[in-house]
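tokens incoming
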């Protein structure tokens, strides 16, 4: 099976980086999006080993104890997905790789089409979220509060001001002020002066 001009046109119509890889891990086709991602021309990609282009290493990524989707697609003859860390033009990104086998007439896998999907922002936002979850102490459950003075009772039965209770169990701090209703109730003469 050869990669014809029509095959290249189809690959170039796709917005995501696509590589077509043979059994020897050689890249036999790369679309324009892949060339743009790697900042290389197709002449500098086609014929190269996939691990040399994506990982900047000299041996297959599965030998580096990384789950290689190309190897899996050839061996299991099925589509597979993994997440890899790749180096592109002096930056490191995380990509979800979908490797899909292409079969010949005898049912053997001739090539694997590798689709690269940049998920760096998703990975980073997940890491940030996990970090924030560890940093933030949350208040949960029912907190008994006095209906008169508004003190709250902690787990040991001790009553304390709501401000102290929240400050001790979260990262929040308090600043004092006075709401308009209390201002009018407690300082009516000041409110009258400010309105005139």
């Amino acid at each position: 099976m050869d990669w014809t001009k029509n095959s290249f046109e189809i690959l170039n119509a796709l917005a995501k980086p696509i590589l077509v890889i043979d059994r020897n891990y050689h890249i036999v086709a790369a679309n324009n999006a892949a060339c743009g991602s790697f900042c290389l021309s197709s002449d500098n990609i086609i014929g190269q080993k996939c691990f040399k282009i994506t990982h900047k290493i000299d041996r297959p990524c599965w030998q580096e104890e990384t789950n290689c989707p190309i190897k899996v697609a050839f061996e299991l003859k099925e589509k597979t997905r993994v997440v890899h860390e790749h180096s592109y033009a002096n930056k490191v990104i995380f990509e979800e790789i979908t490797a899909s086998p292409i079969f010949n007439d005898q049912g053997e896998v001739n090539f694997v089409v590798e689709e690269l999907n940049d998920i760096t922002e998703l990975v980073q936002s997940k890491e940030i979220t996990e970090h924030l979850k560890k940093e933030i102490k949350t208040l949960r459950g029912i907190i008994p509060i006095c209906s008169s003075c508004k003190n709250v009772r902690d787990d040991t039965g001790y009553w304390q001001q709501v401000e102290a209770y929240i400050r001790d169990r979260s990262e929040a701090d308090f600043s004092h002020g006075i709401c308009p209703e209390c201002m009018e109730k407690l300082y009516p003469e000041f409110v009258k002066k400010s309105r005139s």
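note: Strands lie at 18-22, 27-30, 80-88, 91-103, 109-118, 152-153, 159-160.
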